[in-house]
Amino acid sequence: MAVIRRKTKRRLWITLIVLLCLLAPLLLLAAVLPEDRLDALYHSYNGVGVEVDGPSILWRKKIGGYSSISANYYIDAISSASIDAVSSASPYKEKRIEKSVGGDFLLNTAIMTLGYSTSDENDFNAKTASFSLSQDMFGDLTTVTMGYVRGWDQIGKNGDPVFSEEANRQSFRIGVSQVMSRNAVVALNLETVTDEGFLNNPYRSVRYLDSTSASGYSFEPEVYPRTHTSNAIALHTRYYLPYRASLLGEYRYFTDSWGIRANNIALGYTHPYRDHWIFDLRYRYYTQDDADFYNDLFPYRQSQNFLARDKELSRFKNQTVGLSVSYEINPKNWKFIDRGSINLSYDHIRFNYDNFRDITQGAAVGQEPLYHFSADVLQFYLSLWY
Amino acid sequence: MTTARSGTSTMLRLSLLMILILLSGCGLKPWVKPYERNHLADPIMQFSRDPVSSAYISHVYEAREGARGAEGSQGGGCGCN
Amino acid sequence: MRTINLARTMRICMLLLFVAATGAIHAEEISGAAPDFTLKSRSGKNLKLSEFRGQVVMLNFWASWCGPCRQEMPLLDQLYQRYRSMGFTILAVNVEDTSGDALKMLEEVPVRFPVLFDPDNAVSDTYGVEAMPSTVLIDRDGNMRYAHLGYMPGYELDYDREIKGLIRE
Q1: Residue C112 covered by a domain
Q2: pLDDT tens-digit map of A79-118
Q3: Best to test chain C binding among A8, A28, A140, A141 (most C CBs inside 10 Å)
Q4: E strand segments, A23-93
Q5: What are the domain boundaries of chain B?
């Protein structure tokens, strides 16, 4: 089985590379490297009983005109615990540090991007390496991007020094961006992700009906398949309005080998005001079907090969409304800075679960109210271009 | 197992289709002249004006939803060089 | 099937891609009489291309929203300073609908050579501008000799070499 998957993947790679080579003579000019910039962001997520905040710093600099390097330092400081953990495990304070470096290289008519990042928590480490190639074609109206990402995860468990598991990730993506007119751009992205190894959370449990228990149910550890393959296809569009504003439209369809099917759409409106202000309004709607092996309450112990009660795998919807304000500063007397901007962004997300129940609310077993919650996401950041 | 395999075949088919569409565009002359790209070059027309912010919001969703991937695009812009 | 060696295929294709990419056109020798035109300049005066017969002329098509154009401007100004006394001039043709943004950019990036405005893009069409920026070098007899599409760091060395050659003719 694994051999067949590898062969198909190999054929896919070869086909795409050969076709790109055949297209090569049609490639004329292209490519501008990303701008030099420094961004300092403070992010804050405030959900029910969960608070995650921290900084994210990004620095980007062109080197010698044909390459650009970047570095990012990001922290998630997590306090309290989410409902899954509150219901059946202990609350925690956690800190996750993510460091990334990247390089963009102008290879005459294409841009090659390499990246490496590490993410560290006291019970989880992840390393990720990425490669992508971006090519402009057909009078620069079309941009084709191909990318490959490889990841290695190391999973531990607090309080269990012997526990050590691994998971590997691979993802392959291809995107085509097309200028449709003077005022419109459209992009189509496809991405396939494959995970292998220990894919669940060592602290999380599922519950099953248990008449011998006082509450009417008991817990057992969750069991996930050791492989997970997913496919996503997304359409992004941008449209320019004549009085200088823009509209954003996005749609994504997702499906995976665990039986999850998800759709989301997003709409956005960007409105510059006078010389210095830019306002953004956005709306996002997300809906997903549950995984095949998900259940809020299993009928008895070990009723299936795979067991999950992770609300992330349940059937649910969420909606987001968001607003951003940006103020551009153009000081004439700053020597090394071209321009800067101060930005504030607020998103309100509401989750409604169709088959995940809130067992902190006492009720008859299996009749507890369906879980729902809202979260506030705040971002405050300063951007400098130099 | 079969879902994983057919998933990769679907990707293969879709990618080939995209490339065929591109190849068919060979004979076309660019319908937007390079000097007509002032709107497309406007920062408000970028798919992602603030990469740090976009990356963070994507992470907020990916950590809480089952779906992943296919986000982020490049392209449009000034079409210079 | 089994004999497909992924590593070897990838290497061959990357090489093909690289060869094709390096061969991509961004500078070439061209020929033919440079089409004449009249455009309004920054000073308000109308300038005609044929008035500059006898000088080497660099025609540069640019826009304020074009990053590489901004990068290139100061370097073109240096070339202008270096060679203007030897019978060389630069005519920078701005291709935007209105001159507001162009004039604002010229305040931030001052240049000493003439700047012309082509708001209806008639001259851009005549010269078949395919990329931003585009540069055409015209000899003393009014013939087009070199064309450059786009700007990447290092092109100014090519410009320098070509201008020197045309001045000596």
Answers
A1: yes
A2: 876 665 555 555 567 899 999 999 999 886 789 999 999 9
A3: A28
A4: 37-47, 50-63, 67-80
A5: 2-25+35-62
